[in-house]
Amino acid sequence: MNTETPNIAIKAENITKIFGDFTAVDHISFEVKKGEIFGFLGANGAGKTTAMRIFSGLSIPSSGTATVAGFDVYKQTEMIKKNIGYMSQKFSLYHNLTVKENLNFFGGIYGIPRKELKIKGDLLIKELGLENEKNKLVSELPLGWKQKLAFSVAIFHEPQIVFLDEPTGGVDPVTRRQFWKMIYEASDRGITIFVTTHYMDEAEYCDRISIMVDGKIAALDTPANLKKHYNAQNMDDVFYELARGAKRVE
Amino acid sequence: MKQLLTFVKKEFLHVLRDRRTLLLLFGMPVVQILLFGFALSTEVKNTKIGVLDLDKSQTSFEIISKINANRYFDIDKNLKSIDQAENAFKGGKIKMIVMIPTQFSADINSGKKAQLQLITDGTDLNLANQIYSFMSNILLDFYGQQTLQQNSGVQPEIRMLYNPQLRGAPNFVPGVMAFILLIICVLMTAIAIVREKESGSMEILLVSPMKPYIIILAKAIPYFILSLIILVSIIILSVTVLDLPIKGNLILLFGISIIFIITNLLIGIVISILTKTQQTAMLISLVGTMLPTLMLSGFMFPVENMPIPLQMVGNLIPAKWYYQIVKNIMIKGTGLEVVWKHVLVLFAMMAVLFIIAVKKFKIRLE
Fold this sequence. Notes:
Chain A has about 250 residues and is α/β, with parallel strands linked by helices. Helices cover about 35% and strands about 25% of the residues of chain A. Chain A starts with 7 loop residues before the first strand and ends in a 7-residue tail after the last helix. In chain B, about 35% of the residues are buried. In chain B, helix 10 packs parallel to helix 14. The two termini of chain B are about 25 Å apart. The mean pLDDT of chain B is about 80. Chain B is an alpha/beta fold. The interface of A and B includes residues 90, 94, 96 and 106 of A.
């Protein structure tokens, strides 16, 4: 852990990523506090995915400095990977494996010892109320349960930070609300949440949000302050106001 | 190591849970072996032939009874005249007519060159060729006895070494082996890896502390084991059902098979690195490896008859070398002293593919 800033989960300074003559991420700087729910917004092609790949240790930035969970994004990507969780909308779990097999697999690749895995796995299944479904294939579960299970799997190895890439795509509003309850619980336990979304009502649930436009962070504040600053009724208007000026279209 | 085991276990679950694919994988070699072995036989067995004996001598009777005694030919019709010959062919039942001319025995007795005519149905070229050469063998055998008795002239004697009955099995069993291993190692492996990319799970795996090469290794191991199991089943089938003994060294055969399996796994991995969707991976595997293997490696069409450029392309196909090695070891019983060059080629291919796979993999990761 970085001793200088013990309460900082992610710290980025002038992070830039250049592909050829295209600057995907252009000098972005921000800090995410521990346990914070940080919304990372932006239109498609704004550079969100590239930035997220850098912070999750998949991609090395072209310039700038950043630490994730106290580890350097240039030299300590392996340590970063051990201390983060990841969940995306596109994929939740392996559909032709059972609930239990999925838990064992993802726990196993994060190096959780077998005994601990069994105890924690049983506990989690109980918490989620999936006792009767634990030996069912994931493909047989309703989508909402899959999402919840996927989130539980993403934080199963107790990461410091969890990256959620549009985690609620295609889920109905009720399930989404339940899903956000889980996010709050995780945040209360001290897990930092880094979430991207296209739903502006979800953006309101975040502690702070940043909005990326053309590879730069165009705005970063609490939802309330942003609305006040842009004199807007809701986050939709804030987002539209900012994204309208974008020159890059995917 | 523990991560690898966890991953391999998961891959096995995927493979075992996909019953249809599994059934296909095990069913295919069994069906192919049984089909080629019994139904789709190219062997000459009980071929119906006609005989037109114009000589009606002691010698001609001897020839006819010798042909009749052979289990590969059945004399279906005794023709009376040459005019009946064409009608007999048109009926479709008769594949060959042996015509013994009037002065046949007289020629033999006077020491002249005796002639005898074999007429075959050319519409079925392969069969015609086979029964022609087979009949020639019988007749030469007969000639041999005659000339020995008379102590005159030298007659060539043709023997089909290693496969005297001209059976199809010695040819297709090595072919089926090469082809099944190709399907499992290239096609299945490529699809299994690309499937993770397509579904998005590759992202999750790459974000995890698992080293990327472990992911690839774990993907390849189940198919490696599956290949070995299927290899053993093919060999057991061919020994028990097809009566085709393994003449050479079994350990050598397995050792070389392992090199071939790894070579193909590497091809599968390279394809999976270069492609993004399962469909593309499948198409490249089919067009890039399976089709050329079928056409150019020699187990469907003889390589010797191909134009030089095609032969050269054929040399790039691992299955061609493997096919020849397996034929040598299984059927002829030769050892490393004969096939070492082929093994070396396979080994070189494996090494080159390994380097390509590692390089491409690194580039793709960035």
